[in-house]
């Protein structure tokens, strides 16, 4: 998967507008998140980048993830296992989560936007977001059971 340069540029613009300095480490963490389709944990991000940044600590990764989250660039997904996974927020999408290994895969289903309108009309709530998760066993874990 190649870097989506437009996503990276937009993310950097957002950070600059909020007064966040773009350090090489921040750039690398953002780029990794944009390219990752696995919703990595902070530890996975650290392990992937520590070779390029020998003086970077896990705490640095956590601090930067917090900065990105506060800027609205990423979502923290506190699923199943105790370590949060991080997702670069580009568009509304849903998650399929493996009960065995915890892997999270994105999927899009545009029809579900109607859920918000329906929920609003039934409850009287002013609905501003929704979240959907489906749980099951991923193909890799299925093949291990055979």
UniProtKB/TrEMBL annotation:
Example GO BP: negative regulation of DNA-templated transcription
Instruction: List where in the cell it is found.
Output: Cytoplasm
User: What does the note under cofactor report?
Assistant: Binds 1 zinc ion per subunit.
| Cofactor(s) named in the record | Zn(2+); Mn(2+); Fe(2+)
* Binding of Fe cation, residues: 130
Keywords assigned by UniProt, alphabetized: Cytoplasm, DNA-binding, Iron, Manganese, Metal-binding, Repressor, Transcription, Transcription regulation, Zinc
Q: Which InterPro entries match?
A: FUR (IPR002481), Fur_C (IPR043135), WH-like_DNA-bd_sf (IPR036388), WH_DNA-bd_sf (IPR036390)
Q: Which GO terms describe its molecular function?
A: DNA-binding transcription factor activity; transcription cis-regulatory region binding; zinc ion binding
One CC-aspect GO term: cytoplasm
Q: Give binding positions for Zn(2+).
A: 98, 101, 138, 141
Q: Please state the protein's primary subcellular location.
A: cytoplasm
Concerning Pfam families, the annotation shows: FUR
Similarity annotation: Belongs to the Fur family.
Name by which UniProt lists this protein:
Peroxide-responsive transcriptional repressor PerR
